Amino acid sequence: MPSAVVISTIQGTILSVFSNILAQCIKAYRSDTPLSLNPTPTLTFALYSILSTPPNYFWQELLESWFPSYTTPPSPPTSKSEGSIQQSLSTSNTIKKFLADQAISAPLNTLAFLAFMKGSALASRSHTSMSELLWEVVRDFPALHIASLKLWPAVGLLSFTLIPVERRVVFGSFVALGWNIYLGLAMS
Predict the structure, then answer these.
(1) Is the C or the N end of the chain the one with fewer CB within 10 Å?
(2) Which of 177, 148, 147 is nearest to 22 (CA)?
(3) In which element (H, E) is residue 70 found?
(4) CA gap 28, 133 in Å, rounded
């Protein structure tokens, strides 16, 4: 049986491919042109998903180990409480996890996405340099990061409060279905 990270990677990749194909369909519809699927951006999104899902999965596990979502309150052992241990959502751990995720993972994921997508696009051109790639990433980072702040913090809060750790990346992949359509349209 494949591991949870492999399953999450496969699911995320399928959703990423689907979102890019949908973006191409929407673009053709909006421009009133016949649909001609371009496999290059679809494969680029798929490869990015394959490469980025495992680190994000392990990041979620690391956050959970640092700041567990649920804690068991200490209670004196009684005959009533022995059979039913109540766990409650740790508000302080959820806030810490959210802040760590937004301060560390959000900008790193945005930078990685831009570097990968811009690098893939530049690789197809002749006479490109690393400085050109860096310039494009630095130029585009603020706008994309600000756009991401309109969606991903809310997703993070929902994820940390309602979604089990082993399902968070898949939940994020479902949300990313819409986000990737937006990115596919914005980058085409």
Answers:
(1) N
(2) 177
(3) strand 70-71
(4) 28
End-to-end CA distance of the chain: 38
| Alpha carbons 12 and 14: distance in angstroms, whole number | 6
**CA–CA separation, 31 vs 61, rounded Å?**
43
| CA distance linking residue 154 with residue 99, whole number of Å | 12
**Cβ neighbour number for residue 88 with a 10 Å cutoff:** 10
Q: Which among 111, 78, 101 is positioned nearest to 152, based on CA atoms?
A: 101
Specify the residue for token string 């490869």. Answer: 47
Q: What is the dihedral of CA 43, 48, 49, 51, to 10 degrees?
A: 130
**Which structure tokens are listed for 155?**
């997703």
Each residue's pLDDT tens digit, 54-88: 999 999 999 999 999 888 766 665 655 555 666 78
Query: Residue 70: what are its φ and ψ, rounded to 5°?
Result: -120, 140
Alpha-carbon distance of 122 to 187, in angstroms, equals 13
Tell me what pLDDT residue 180 has.
81
Q: What are the CA-CA distances from residue 17 to residues 28, 38, 51, 69, 139 (Å)?
A: 17, 12, 14, 32, 26
With contact defined as beta carbons under 8 Å apart, do 119 and 89 qualify? Answer: no
| pTM metric for this prediction | 0.84
